[in-house]
Amino acid sequence: MRPKKYFYYILSATILELCIFLFINSTLYRGVFNLGLLIPFMMFRVLASYYYSKQEMRNKRAKPTLVILFTIPLLLFIFFKPTYTFEQARQLVYESAYDVSHIVVHNEERRYRDTVPIYTEDSRCFISYRDYHFEGDGRYFLVHPRSGVVTEMKQPYW
């Protein structure tokens, strides 16, 4: 196989991988996972594959390096993703001591209300400064995506 084909395969696989990460992050985690930290690894992979294709893959470290660069973003996503998805966080609100019987589900146009910005912690690695937000029985709740701590808000955010 020609080295230029490797570059196009890697570029296509990188774009596909990014689209899959975006889909999973937006549907399961409602954008709580910070993909901005994975994109530099993906860009470096594309640049390295372009460099190796210019050398016609003569370097014996080319293919192992590209395999490693493919696994780094995947492993980072697997190990640092939020502990709870949006649906699991909703279940935590139901199971909490706050005795909630009904949670309002927002349609696609108002989906931005599913998370709220939070700036109370020193740092969050790979998770943006957002918590899951729920409205139920006239009360409002926040759920931390990593720890699952349910907190009742005194007033609505939105």
From TrEMBL:
The chain crosses the membrane at residues 7-26, 32-52, 64-80. Keywords: Membrane, Transmembrane, Transmembrane helix. The lineage of its organism: Bacteria, Bacillati, Bacillota, Bacilli, Bacillales. This is Uncharacterized protein. The keyword Transmembrane helix applies.
